Structure formats: structure tokens, C-alpha cells
């Protein structure tokens, strides 16, 4: 790469840092909110009565059938029309969080249902209540089991956050486009964007693997 | 001498520092049935896998029909033969595994015909005929279209035996073929092996079924710690065991 | 609020929406087919005995899986022309989605290969099959059957990812929807219709893939 690139890189360092910060902020908020919502939907999906199960299933399947980009654009455009005014940032986080929640709920259901029936019966046999069985037997195992998938989802959310650039959130992708608009070093700065995302995703993956090992049942 | 099917001399095999076979020598003539007994870790399965070239070995020579397999002498250096030759050498022996290892996506008949068609380049019709013959031979004439998942363990193992026999091997190797079976399914498999032995097939059998070993073999080998500790007729081994180790082993196994 | 739902506009643009959907399917199908081939080869490299193969394939999978599809497509469509490689919008996108798909599909296949019982390969060896024959006649057929469910999920996901082509103005469904929204201001109608089309397509694809799964499933 030419010296021009490093010059330009130096000039735009603060922009890039802000972009990274926004990307991380959007991703982190979406994952936290999404996990929170997803837990409830997942519980409804697993333990709910017919009606709540149906609702949770419909929510999960519909959201999972819509591309993230469409979710983002829908929330951004539609909410303002029906009188809910969200900033681009808020709309972006909301849509990513909803996307995340649908994946979490499905994941949690899978994890909970994979806990062997015999264990649940054993827990009942020693007199644990439904709630106690859930907290002490099912959930700890389900959480361990969904951890790898949860990590994958987190990486997907970070990657999905590029799409909020399309509604004007100034995260890494949009920052790069702004920089490229100024200096036309297209390849270099998109490659840089790729590298930054890779480093973020890779760190999440590694941390996830580490945690997985720590909490693994030996 | 032309009758010698298998000749193993001074076979040594180690995994890293751990020596599993410490110099095993063994000869088998046509029609011999030799059972190999011994506790787990004594090297009996490894011995079988070496003969089928599923394992490399560091020292010694294995000859089938007088020809060395797996290794050759290249300018005085012991060299592994080409992958192609390994494949050819392997085809001289038929192996039946503890865990059946049928191909789950193929029907019983297809399990047998696959190698007939692909390795022996036989026609579809001929392969199908051979498969049917061997399925009948193992008592499963009407299960050719069944898939492994639809068969009992005993039936699967019989298909696996038919698959190996269909390749027309010089020597059959059985590696604890009943260990993964439910007790009530063991006999149907052992009966098939006995009837194949009665036909004059040369067989090397690793087994935990002492009564079966007693009945089927003309020689029994007791392996201990990577060596052949005792070898003799079934009567000599089971009725007149001399060494303490063999006695200790037999005491702990049911007959 | 003075908003009245009026789907008449959507009716009139239905042709555009379906055209867009068709384009999504076309691009996804193309990439899935190519990506599956790449994925299969890469998966065998991932479990290869040769370190070089493992390192190269591992780098490809780890790298691509951590880079957003949008960055890949921007790089290919806007960046590569600087290096003298210019592709049209649709080929660019198919290129990007194929590379992307290959990494995900490779992971699925890798899992499948590792799940194949070692003994099945040994049984193939024992009846005299060569390594190549074992891969072609035993491992690949077994693999495709066992990973089909996981593969279905990846395929559906890749179909949804085709929406990202809107970024480089490929006139697929999301792009069409955005255009209709901006031209007619029928925001709710436009986006709800797009969502319905996407969800329905996903269900349909899932349904068809499920049938394939059942057809190729190993009989039990």
C-alpha cells in the first residue's frame, strides 16, 4: 500500500475510532436487549400454554423469515409513519435486537428441550418444584449448550450492524464510505473495514471459546 | 509349504513410546482357525489390524500366500509400499469389525456389491448375484433391500461378514465381532462363523467368547502384554492350562 | 394520524416485487450451488492430514465468517475495479455471496465429516477400496445425507442474505420495496408486503428442503 494510504489513515483515525465505537455500541445494545427479549420468548415457546406457544412461535418464525436488512429498513421507515419517532441509531438497535431475540428464543427452546427427560423426572422425584427444576437443573445445562450458538449470534449481530449504515448510522462501514468519498482509496479502506470487523468477530469468538472451556462440565 | 496362508514373523508395533506388539510370530495354513484370547490391552486387536494393514508397524514381516504385504525392501531399506499396493494387499484379507461398520446409507445388498463393482470391477448383475449368494449363506436371503438401521445388531454383523466373504479373501479376520451385541444375538453370529469355518476358510479370530473359541478353533493363542504367551490346541489351552497368567485370565472369564 | 392503508399501489407494483424476489432466488441458488462445491472441497481440506491444507482452509473459513457480507460486496464491486477487475452488479454479488456461502457450508460439512464413524472408512479400506473411492462412494453420500438438515438452515439464511444486493442497486426485492416506498410513500404497505413475501418464501424453501431431507434421509 502506498504512503498515501497511511497518511489518509492517520488523518481519519478519529473518525474510524468513532465508527468502531458506534459499531460496538449498536452491537452490544442489540445483543443485550435481544437476549433479554429472546429469553422470555424462548420460555413461552418451551413452557407456555397453547396460546402463548403459538404467539411465540409466530414471532420467532416470522422474524427469522425476514432478512436483517428488511427488518432495519422496515423499522426505520414504518415506525416514523405510525408516529413513533426513533433516531436512526435507535431504529437500528431496535431492529437488530428483535432479530437477535428471535434467534435466542429458538436457541433457548432447543437447549431446554435437549435436557434429558430422565433428569427432569429425577428432579421431580426428589421433590423439586417446576421452578426449582428449571433454575437448578434445566437452565444451567441449557445455557452451557447454547453458549456456542449464542457467540455465533453475537458475531452475526456485529456483522449485521454494517447494514445500519444504510439508514445513516455512522458506524464503521459508513465512516469508510465517507473516507473513500474523500480520497478514493476504495480497496484499501474497505479492506481495512474487513480487517476491523474480522478482529472484532475473532475476539468475540476466542473469548467465547475461552468461556466455553471454563464453564464446561467435565 | 504351499499351504501356508499367513506367516507373521517378529512383528513389533508401538504408538509413540508405548510398545503394543513386542515381537509376535505366527503361521497359519489353509483351513486353520486360530482364536486369539487375552485381556484388553494385550495387543490382540492391534495384531489383527496390522494384518489388514489398518495399522503401520515398525518391525517384522507379514506374508500372505508367501508374499510380503505392506512393506518392501528398497535398496536394503524397509519401505512402505504405495497406497495403491496397500489397497491391493488389504483385499487379500477380509475383516469384520466389532462395531459392524456397515455403510448406513446403503442397503444390505449394496453394502456387499459396492466393492465388488468398484474394486473388483464386476458387472452389476454378477455383483448382485454374489451378494444374494452370501446373504443366503449368512441366513438373510430376504433382507437385501433392508438398510443397516432397519436390521438388528446380529443381522448387521451377519451382513458385514457376508460383505467381507464376498470379496473372496484368502484369510478372514474377526475382531471381537460379538462384543457390541446383545447377549441373545451373539449365537446367530457365532453360528455363521462356525459354518464358514466348516467350509474350510482360514480364519484368525479375536474373541472373548471362550466356549466359541474352544469349539471353532484348531489352535488357540493366549496373548499377554504384546506377546504370544501360550499357543496350543483348545484342549491344551482351556483344559490343561499350564502358566499362572493363563490360569488367572481364564479364571476371570466365563466359559 | 391520517394514514390509511392502501394496498392498490402494491398491486400495481406486484410485478416488480416478484421480479425482485425471482432475482433473489436466482442469485441465492447460483451462490448456494457454487458455495456448496467450494464448501465440500474446503471441508475435506479442513480435516486433511496435511497441515498446509488445514491452515489455508482454516484461514479462509475463519476470515470470511467474521467479515460482514456487505463489506465483501463493497470490496468486490467498488474496490476490485481499482485493481483492474470489473464485474457487473449481479455477477459481483454472486461472487461475494459464493465466497461467503463457501465458508459457512464448509463448516457444516466439516462437522458432518467428523461425525462419520471412523470405522465406516476402515470398513471401506478393509474391502479394498482406495482412499478416493471411500470419499466418493461412502463419505460424500453419507455426508450429504447427514448434514442435510443443517445445510437447509444455511441455504435459507443465504437466501435472506441475497437482500444485501440492494446495497449495490441490484433490483431485487428489498431494492424494489425501497423504491416503491420512496416513490409512493406507501411505507407500511411496501414493507409489510416485502416481509410477507420473504417469510412466505422462507417457509416454502424450508418445506421443499424438508422434503429433500426426507428423501435422502438414511432409512431407520
TrEMBL record, chain A:
SUPFAM superfamilies: MetI-like
Location of this chain's protein in the cell: Cell membrane
GO cellular component assignments: ATP-binding cassette (ABC) transporter complex
GO terms, biological process: amino acid transport
Gene3D superfamilies reported in the protein's UniProt record: MetI-like (1.10.3720.10)
The ABC transmembrane type-1 domain, residue ranges: 20-208
Membrane topology listed for this record: Multi-pass membrane protein
Keywords: Cell membrane, Membrane, Transmembrane, Transmembrane helix, Transport
TM annotation in the entry: 20-42, 62-79, 163-181, 187-204
Primary localization class, coarse: membrane
Gene Ontology molecular-function annotations: transmembrane transporter activity
PROSITE patterns linked to this entry: ABC_TM1
Annotated CDD domains: TM_PBP2
Keyword Transferase: no
Protein name stated in the entry: Unannotated protein
Organism of origin: freshwater metagenome
TrEMBL record, chain B:
A Pfam match: ABC_tran
Organism listed in the record: freshwater metagenome
Subcellular location: Cell membrane
ABC transporter domain: residues covered: 6-250
Keywords attached to this entry: Amino-acid transport, ATP-binding, Cell membrane, Membrane, Nucleotide-binding, Transport
PANTHER family: AMINO ACID IMPORT ATP-BINDING PROTEIN, GLUTAMATE_ASPARTATE IMPORT ATP-BINDING PROTEIN GLTL
Chief localisation class: membrane
Protein name: Unannotated protein
GO molecular function term, any single one: ATP hydrolysis activity
GO cellular component: plasma membrane
Membrane disposition: Peripheral membrane protein
Protein family: Belongs to the ABC transporter superfamily.
From TrEMBL, chain C:
Keyword set includes Cell membrane: yes
GO cellular component term of the entry, any: ATP-binding cassette (ABC) transporter complex
SUPFAM superfamilies: MetI-like
Subcellular location: Cell membrane
A single GO BP: amino acid transport
Membrane topology reported for the UniProt record: Multi-pass membrane protein
Gene Ontology molecular function, alphabetical: transmembrane transporter activity
PROSITE patterns: ABC_TM1 (PS50928)
Domain ABC transmembrane type-1, residue spans: 21-209
Main location: membrane
Keywords, ordered alphabetically: Amino-acid transport, Cell membrane, Membrane, Transmembrane, Transmembrane helix, Transport
Protein name (record): Unannotated protein
Amino acid at each position: 500500500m502506498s504512503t498515501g494510504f497511511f497518511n489518509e489513515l492517520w488523518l481519519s483515525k478519529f473518525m474510524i475510532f468513532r465508527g468502531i465505537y458506534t459499531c460496538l455500541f449498536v452491537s452490544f445494545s442489540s445483543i443485550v436487549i435481544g437476549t433479554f427479549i429472546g429469553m422470555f420468548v424462548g420460555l413461552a415457546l418451551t413452557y407456555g400454554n397453547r396460546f402463548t406457544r403459538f404467539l411465540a412461535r409466530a414471532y420467532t418464525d416470522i422474524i427469522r423469515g425476514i432478512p436483517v436488512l428488511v427488518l432495519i429498513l422496515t423499522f426505520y421507515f414504518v415506525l416514523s409513519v405510525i408516529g413513533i419517532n426513533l433516531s436512526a441509531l435507535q431504529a437500528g438497535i431496535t431492529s437488530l435486537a428483535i432479530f437477535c431475540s428471535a434467534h435466542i428464543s429458538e436457541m433457548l427452546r432447543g437447549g431446554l428441550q435437549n435436557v434429558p427427560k430422565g433428569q427432569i423426572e429425577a428432579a421431580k422425584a426428589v421433590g423439586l418444584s417446576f421452578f426449582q427444576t428449571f433454575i437448578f437443573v434445566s437452565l444451567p445445562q441449557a445455557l452451557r449448550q447454547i453458549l456456542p450458538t449464542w457467540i455465533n449470534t453475537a458475531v452475526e449481530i456485529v456483522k449485521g450492524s454494517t447494514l445500519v449504515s444504510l439508514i445513516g448510522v455512522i458506524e464503521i462501514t459508513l465512516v469508510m464510505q465517507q473516507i473513500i468519498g474523500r480520497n478514493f482509496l476504495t480497496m484499501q479502506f474497505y479492506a481495512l473495514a474487513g480487517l476491523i470487523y474480522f478482529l472484532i468477530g475473532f475476539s468475540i469468538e476466542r473469548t467465547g471459546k475461552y468461556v466455553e472451556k471454563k464453564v464446561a462440565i467435565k | 509349504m504351499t499351504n501356508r496362508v499367513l506367516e507373521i514373523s517378529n512383528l513389533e508395533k508401538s504408538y509413540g513410546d508405548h510398545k503394543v506388539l513386542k515381537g509376535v510370530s505366527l503361521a497359519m495354513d489353509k483351513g486353520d482357525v486360530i482364536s486369539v484370547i487375552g485381556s484388553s490391552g494385550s495387543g490382540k486387536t492391534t495384531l489383527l489390524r496390522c494384518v489388514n494393514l489398518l495399522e503401520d508397524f515398525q518391525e517384522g514381516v507379514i506374508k500372505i500366500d508367501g508374499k510380503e504385504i505392506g512393506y518392501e525392501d528398497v535398496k536394503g531399506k524397509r519401505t512402505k509400499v504405495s497406497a495403491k499396493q496397500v489397497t491391493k494387499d488389504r483385499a487379500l484379507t477380509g475383516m469384520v469389525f466389532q462395531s459392524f461398520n456397515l455403510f448406513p446409507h446403503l442397503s444390505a445388498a449394496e453394502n456387499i456389491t459396492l466393492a465388488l463393482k468398484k474394486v473388483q470391477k464386476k458387472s452389476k448383475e454378477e455383483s448382485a448375484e454374489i451378494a444374494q449368494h452370501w446373504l443366503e449363506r449368512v441366513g438373510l436371503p430376504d433382507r437385501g433391500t433392508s438398510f443397516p438401521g432397519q436390521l438388528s445388531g446380529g443381522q448387521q454383523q451377519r451382513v458385514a461378514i457376508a460383505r467381507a466373504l464376498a470379496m473372496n479373501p484368502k484369510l478372514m479376520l474377526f475382531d471381537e465381532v460379538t462384543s457390541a451385541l446383545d447377549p441373545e444375538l451373539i449365537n446367530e453370529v457365532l453360528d455363521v462363523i462356525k459354518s464358514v469355518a466348516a467350509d474350510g476358510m482360514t480364519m484368525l479370530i479375536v474373541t472373548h467368547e471362550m466356549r466359541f473359541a474352544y469349539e471353532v478353533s484348531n489352535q488357540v493363542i493366549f496373548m499377554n502384554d504384546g506377546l504370544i504367551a501360550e499357543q496350543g490346541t483348545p484342549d491344551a489351552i482351556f483344559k490343561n492350562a499350564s502358566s499362572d497368567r493363563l490360569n488367572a485370565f481364564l479364571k476371570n472369564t466365563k466359559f | 394520524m391520517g394514514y390509511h392503508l392502501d394496498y392498490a399501489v402494491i398491486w400495481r407494483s406486484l410485478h416488480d416485487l416478484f421480479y425482485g424476489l425471482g432475482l433473489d432466488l436466482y442469485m441465492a441458488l447460483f451462490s448456494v450451488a457454487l458455495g456448496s462445491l467450494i464448501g465440500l472441497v474446503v471441508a475435506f481440506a479442513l480435516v486433511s492430514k496435511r497441515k498446509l491444507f488445514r491452515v489455508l482452509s482454516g484461514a479462509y473459513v475463519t476470515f470470511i465468517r467474521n467479515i460482514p457480507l456487505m463489506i465483501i460486496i463493497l470490496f468486490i464491486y467498488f474496490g476490485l475495479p481499482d485493481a483492474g477487475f470489473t464485474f457487473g452488479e449481479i455477477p459481483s454479488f454472486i461472487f461475494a455471496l459464493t465466497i461467503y456461502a463457501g465458508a459457512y457450508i464448509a463448516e457444516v460439512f466439516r462437522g458432518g465429516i467428523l461425525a462419520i464413524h471412523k470405522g465406516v472408512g476402515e470398513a471401506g479400506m478393509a474391502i479394498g477400496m482406495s482412499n478416493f473411492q471411500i470419499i466418493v462412494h461412502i463419505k460424500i453420500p453419507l455426508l450429504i445425507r447427514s448434514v442435510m438438515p443443517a445445510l437447509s438452515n444455511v441455504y435459507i439464511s443465504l437466501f435472506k442474505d441475497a437482500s444485501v444486493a440492494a446495497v449495490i442497486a441490484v433490483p431485487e426485492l428489498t431494492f424494489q420495496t425501497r423504491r416503491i416506498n420512496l416513490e409512493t410513500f406507501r411505507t407500511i404497505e411496501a414493507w409489510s408486503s416485502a416481509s410477507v413475501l420473504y417469510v412466505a418464501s422462507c417457509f416454502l424453501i424450508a418445506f421443499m428442503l424438508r422434503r429433500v431431507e426426507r428423501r435422502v434421509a438414511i432409512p431407520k
